[in-house]
Amino acid sequence: MTDPISDFFIRIKNAQKAGHETVQIPYSRFKHEIARALERSGFVGKAEKKGRRVRVLELTLLYHNRVPLLRDVKLFSTPSRRLYTSYRTIPSASRGGAILLTTPKGVLNNKEARKEKVGGQLLVEIW
Q1: 39-97, pLDDT tens digit by residue?
Q2: Which of 9, 69, 91, 115 maximizes the CB count within 10 A of its CB?
Q3: What's the 3-state SS for 91-104?
Q4: Radius of gyration of the chain (CA)
């Protein structure tokens, strides 16, 4: 697997298309930070680390009238191309969504990053 972040979002989208209530994703601290940012933004429910030997991240998926709240994702940074921005030039999220960034203060959405006045690497746009 060359891009664990795209795999993370693909697993979520596939689980939502199948109508699952939860999805299990191989655990990493970075994925857990992304899941917490999604939780704060209201796109997923609870994000928990489970297991001792084989650790997985279990996300509770949220729906509104059987329509998933996380409808689609656009990746900004890929393993071959990283995009960085200052807090002054953070793009606004279109379609009523959010943009996730990695910053020195952790993974934040665009509103939190502007409020904290930190820039960083653009990860994804979610709507």
Answers
A1: 999 999 999 999 999 999 999 999 999 999 999 999 999 999 999 999 999 999 888 89
A2: 9
A3: CCCCCCCEEEEEEC
A4: 14
Query: How much is the pTM?
Result: 0.93
- H helix intervals, 18-109: 29-41
Q: Which residue has 């890929």 as its token pair?
A: 78
Paired residues of 81 in beta bridges? 78
Tokens for 46, please give them.
Answer: 């609870």
Distance CA(37)–CA(35), nearest Å, equals 5
- Tokens 């795999």 belong to residue: 7
DSSP 8-state secondary structure symbol assigned to residue 89: G
Question: For 8-22, how does the pLDDT look when each residue is reduced to its tens digit (9 = 90+)?
Answer: 999 999 999 999 999
Two tokens at 121? 């690497």
